[in-house]
Amino acid sequence: QQQVKQSPQSLIVQKGGISIINCAYENTAFDYFPWYQQFPGKGPALLIAIRPDVSEKKEGRFTISFNKSAKQFSLHIMDSQPGDSATYFCAARVYTGTASKLTFGTGTRLQVTL
Amino acid sequence: SAVISQKPSRDICQRGTSLTIQCQVDSQVTMMFWYRQQPGQSLTLIATANQGSEATYESGFVIDKFPISRPNLTFSTLTVSNMSPEDSSIYLCSVASGTNSYEQYFGPGTRLTVT
Q: Which CATH number fits domain A4-113: 1.10.3720.10, 2.60.40.1930, 3.40.930.10, 2.60.40.10?
């Protein structure tokens, strides 16, 4: 079953703290794991992504940690800011032979307080 | 990344009617996708649209209900037919440059309310 499980459903972090969102998958055919950030009334924006041959990827304050053996990956937001308050979706890609298909997690609503 | 626009941005429609949503990209892309996102929920793929071929629908979505056109490499439409309140949702267009591209980029969405 092509499913991606995401937790927590919601998260409240103080400004300057670390936000951590976790995802787990079952399908070993997934070969690309993006994270999307979505603000209210907007479409999801590609934030950062990783391929399974890498255990960590960092872009600014955002880091993905990837554990291939455990089939888990997580997003870490360092020095969280109020402007980071949004909904975050993890996803996993599979190539069907004719197209890429993304399966999304259920989303995490992050609120960063002052 | 591509710049994607959708029209309309939002609409309120009566049940039984149909609405066509347009998706325009500022560069040529091979793959276009249509997703549905119910308020506060995750994204569900409706169909994949390759230029020059019939759209491929996901389980639970049928062409009669969600006909899709893909006349060229920068444009696609999704029609929501014979609408019911259950069709109230955000409809999102997404693009990828190639069939095996990793990155997908999303448009701003169309918020549909059916009364």
A: 2.60.40.10
